[in-house]
Predict the 3D structure of the following.
Amino acid sequence: MKICSPEQAGIKSSDVKRFYEFLDECNLSTHSVIMARGDSIFSECYYSPFNSDFLHRMYSVSKSFVSVAVGFCIQDGLVSPDDRMEKFFPEYTECEWAFEHTSTVRDLLMMESDMAGVNWFRQKPADRASVYFKTSASKKPGTLFDYDSSGSYMLGVIVEKLTGKPFLKYLQEKVLDDIGFSKGAYCIKAPGGYSFSDSGVMCTARDLLLFARFVMNGGTWEGKRYLNEEYLRRATDMKISNNDYGFIDHGSFGYGYLIWGAPGGCYAMLGMGNQIALCDPKHDFIFIINSDNQGNSHGYEEILTALYTCIISNLTEDGSALHDNAAECDALALYLKEKKLFCLKGSRSSHFSDKINRVVFVPDKNPMGIKWFRLEFDGDEGVLFYENEQGKKSFRFGFGHNVFMKFPQVGYSDLVANTFAEGNTYDAAFSADWPEERKLRIRVQIIDKYFGNLAIVFGFKDEKEVSVRMSKTAEDFLSEYSGVMNASADAP
């Protein structure tokens, strides 16, 4: 795609700068942003250590890739939207609840299946697909919207059964290779061997932009038709009602085929932690953001408020360019030049730190299984030492900056989700601050194939007693770091 200035795309550089400032003011953990109009990118920013080559986990944006893969299978005559899913899974006919599952391919695409979702993580299955048929149906298919991530996974399995290849590989052969999608993009697997298709696509921010542009083109690229327009029209028509209460929020503008409605006639592909590809056909505008704001229930609203207020409402209606404003363009470039991943921004020091520096604390029995811990402070950094069921561990954190290193817990999933991976560790960012004189706060951001947030707060009553709360938001890990413990200084 081409590169142009915001003014050439019909928006002021100052409005674009205001958008980024809004994200920063909300303390959002942003990884990358791209804004494009037509075939031209007018803003692209990566927050270090993220860069343009980073294969980012797309989480539930992956479902929209599944939708397009299903569209190609329909076009190839491999499946009909009216086919019942049981047709493709004869191996599970003996499962306890298999007879209840009568949803069609169309029902699964519209999130109107007979299920309201299956939490398979706790079950640790050897074959994730079997879990679906071992779970009772909860409603009549084709009647009520319920976000059923497992149904999207089953659609991915159907595509792979029909094509004999990973669904993303099928898409690459059908269209993605031709439009410049990364050759190294892939999808994490689920237990049983099929792709983790409802959550596991790994690709770059630009890849997501190209995919969104293909969808908004109605299935064409540079004049060549790849996928029939009728399927993508239905996929983005938002005819499914998903707003029971009538409240207005990011998830209340209807649903298509694994694609969400959005205000102003837009539609969006949404993923956990605020991965967003928003398409605005009226303005021929596409917005891409990758983030990890897990734990922030207002993340989508904050991002979309900034997007509609600062960007979409200020785009020229007809796409006409504005007069160049070199000063504003330079100010935007300077603002974005050295963007870094969010870190805690409170006080970098406390007089109280001297009183607890290097003191060993021994907690009561606690959910984390921590036996002892101590904090050491050295200028603008510190180290937390502790021992848990895996043994002695430590990590360094920065005041006013992130320290990048491996998170010390070993064995979390790697290329196969929900599966112990011997010796595997995740890249992470560690920062800290003192929100109160006797309260130390540490923020851990997991930034690997899997994303997650961990908050650790030490509330000191005095130099001898402390309560510690650990709060995690992550899909299937960090469970060892969740709970509250009380600890006392070890006697000298």
